[in-house]
Amino acid sequence: MTAPAGAPTSPRRGRCTNFLAFAGLLILFLSPAPARAQAGTTLSIFSDLRFRGYSLSDGRPVAILDFAYDDPSGLYAGAAASGVLQQGGEPAPLGLQFSGGYAKDLSSGTTLDLGITHSSYSHYSSNNGSGGRSYTEVYAGIAKGALSSRIFISPHYFEGGRWTAYGEVNGSISPARKWTIDGHAGALVPLGSSSSSDGYRTQFDWRLGVSRELGRLSLHAAWSDGTPGRDYYNGRTHSRSAIVLGASLVL
Amino acid sequence: MTGLRYFVLCCAGFVALALSVSALAQGSATVAPDRQVLVMVKHPAEHFRPSGAYGGGSYGDDLARSARERLARSIAHDHRLAFVDAWPMPMIGVDCFIMAVPDDRTTAAAAEELSHDSKVSWAEPVQLYQTQAASASHNDPLYPAQPAALSWDLADLHRLATGKGVRIAVIDSGIQANHPDLAGQLLVNRNFVAGQVEVPEDHGTGVAGVIAAKSDNRIGIAGVAPDARLLGLRACWQRGGASQTTVCDGLSLAKALYFAVAEKADVINLSLTGPDGRLLRTLLDAALERGSVIVTAYDSSKPGGGFPASIPGVIAVSDHSLAPSSARVYIAPGRDVPTTQPGGRWFLVNGSSFSAAHVSGLAALVRQRQRSEKLTLVSDRPVGGMIDACATLVRAASGCDCACRGSHLAAARALH
């Protein structure tokens, strides 16, 4: 991934904080949910971990454990832990994600959504250079029917002091029972940087995916791409166009 | 072992495990509908799910599904029920869980118990509904005279409108989509009856023909709205035996109705009647709120004409032979109606089911000329009574320099 160089990676204290936060959320998800709350868990494998048109896993297969908690009040929280299969076949930790927010249904059938998300990745990710490996974003979104749109603002997008805005539009249709086709288009806009790195351009990415439910299993296939520029990992450049295959098991 | 081989091996194991779990889960889906209850819980507001895989997308749906099913299993466990399936209905703000009731309890008792659970918004048994078609009077081939052709002056109505651009959801038994008089008339033909394969059936094919059989094709009949397009939604099925009764269960009806509302059908034809149900009532309210015209058959043997005829805003229709006491019931052709039947045939049919189908077709003609306003049927009484199809359509065709003389269209000189 071409997430640019900048602030060095977080020290051991950061990793410890992430681990404790993840453990805390794990306990929350595995505890009996209060009346009417919904808590879900999925285990997924994918042939690659793509994020906004770039690979975060050097094009390697990943496994992801996702948790979600929805309170009837509209508050929600989520966490995800991912691992990557290295070149030699050894698994390694890849990243942690946390999120929380508030969603409210309006009478018009429209949903408003506000939240914050934090992601951090290990040195096994494609961001293994001198650049940062984490980002925090606040977001606001609106959804109606099969369409949703959000804007994310980050004050340190994979680099200390690098401000970005990311806007996305998502849509999905169900052409037949148990089948879903979803589309996504997004643009990452640089808002400024306090570091010496500059010259970032607006990045565009898109994805077209199809999913099929098979009982508690879902199979996924997606084509994603982005522009301008190419992806860079394993010592050479790669096309940003990629086909990703995967499967998720509802636990 | 290379990473790729390791990944392929993991995938194979993952799929095998999930398919075995899936097979176990689907085994319980064969429970008869009359042994099931519908359990409604509040649907959480849709929101961003920053899954580890590309910010969510359809993968985020799996998390929501996991959450739903965990809650459903918890409720099922608490009430000694078997979780069968989950069906999210965000449009009306609920998740519907289908649960099987063991033989030691009635579904009504289980629904009553569930209704006291704080996690549950409401619960109701899956009930059976029945179409309102009388048995065919005989097996003669196509009868040459359509009642609507005479009493509604159908050919004249078609000078004003043919239903072009209007979508009618036919929630019924299976429709023969490749019938020579229906080929190309169906936008979708979807089966919502669990555990049954889609087959052409008498009632659904007959209702579809009355509404939208092709005209001027030198075969069969002319539908009331031949240029309208149908959403064929199979929620009913034809029982075997001599009676050939067509029945529906509440869950299949609800699924079909939800689909019709979500697809923004202009007209929804429900040629059936049965017991009141909160979920169906909620979906009907949602459909009416979104401007759909709902037409249903009136059952004179039931108070208020049965359900859904008794719902305010739903157009209840009876055939000529009945004398409904309710003032709000409309009367339309429903006796000796030639229409399409499975096998590429045409037979005569009778009953309020087909009166409702006539009115659904008429509603499509009106909707072609007047998209937004509330449908007003002109009849021989202020509300209800014998429908004057010509006056109804002319009232809607504001750009038409035309008028009805008696019950017939006198002139249609210029259309804007």
Describe this structure in words.
The complex is a heterodimer of chains A (251) and B (416). Chain A has one helix at 12-30; strands at 38-46, 50-51, 54-55, 62-70, 75-85, 91-105, 110-121, 134-144, 147-154, 162-173, 179-193, 203-214, 217-227, 231-233, 236-238, 242-250. Chain A is mainly beta and 251 residues long. A twelve-stranded antiparallel barrel of chain A has the order 1-4-5-6-7-8-9-10-11-12-13-16. In chain A, strands 2-3 form a two-stranded antiparallel ribbon. In chain A, strands 14-15 form a two-stranded antiparallel ribbon. In chain A, a hairpin with a 5-residue loop joins β5 (75-85) and β6 (91-105). Chain A is globular, with a radius of gyration of 18 Å. Chain A starts with 11 loop residues before the first helix and ends with a strand. With 416 residues, chain B is of the alpha/beta class. Chain B has helices at residues 3-27, 58-78, 107-115, 147-151, 154-160, 202-212, 250-262, 278-289, 352-369, 389-396, and strands at 36-42, 82-89, 94-100, 122-125, 128-131, 133-134, 167-172, 186-191, 229-234, 236-238, 246-249, 267-270, 272-273, 293-297, 315-318, 330-331, 337-341, 345-351, 385-386, 400-405, 408-415. In chain B, β17 and β18 form a beta hairpin. In chain B, α6 runs parallel beside α9, α7 (250-262) packs parallel to α8 and α9 (352-369) runs parallel beside α10. The relative contact order of chain B is 0.13. Chains A and B meet through β1, β2, β4, β5 and β6 of A and α1 and α2 of B.
Task: Produce the secondary structure layout.
The complex is a heterodimer of chains A (251) and B (416).
Chain A (H helix, E strand, L loop, with lengths): L11 H19 L7 E9 L3 E2 L2 E2 L6 E9 L4 E11 L5 E15 L4 E12 L12 E11 L2 E8 L7 E12 L5 E15 L9 E12 L2 E11 L3 E3 L2 E3 L3 E9 L1
Chain B lengths: L2 H25 L8 E7 L15 H21 L3 E8 L4 E7 L6 H9 L6 E4 L2 E4 L1 E2 L12 H5 L2 H7 L6 E6 L13 E6 L10 H11 L16 E6 L1 E3 L7 E4 H13 L4 E4 L1 E2 L4 H12 L3 E5 L17 E4 L11 E2 L5 E5 L3 E7 H18 L15 E2 L2 H8 L3 E6 L2 E8 L1
Parallel strand pairs in B: 7-9, 7-12, 8-9, 12-14, 14-15, 15-16, 16-19
Antiparallel strand pairs in B: 1-3, 1-4, 2-3, 5-11, 5-13, 6-18, 10-11, 17-18, 20-21
Helix pairs in contact in B: 6-9, 7-8, 9-10
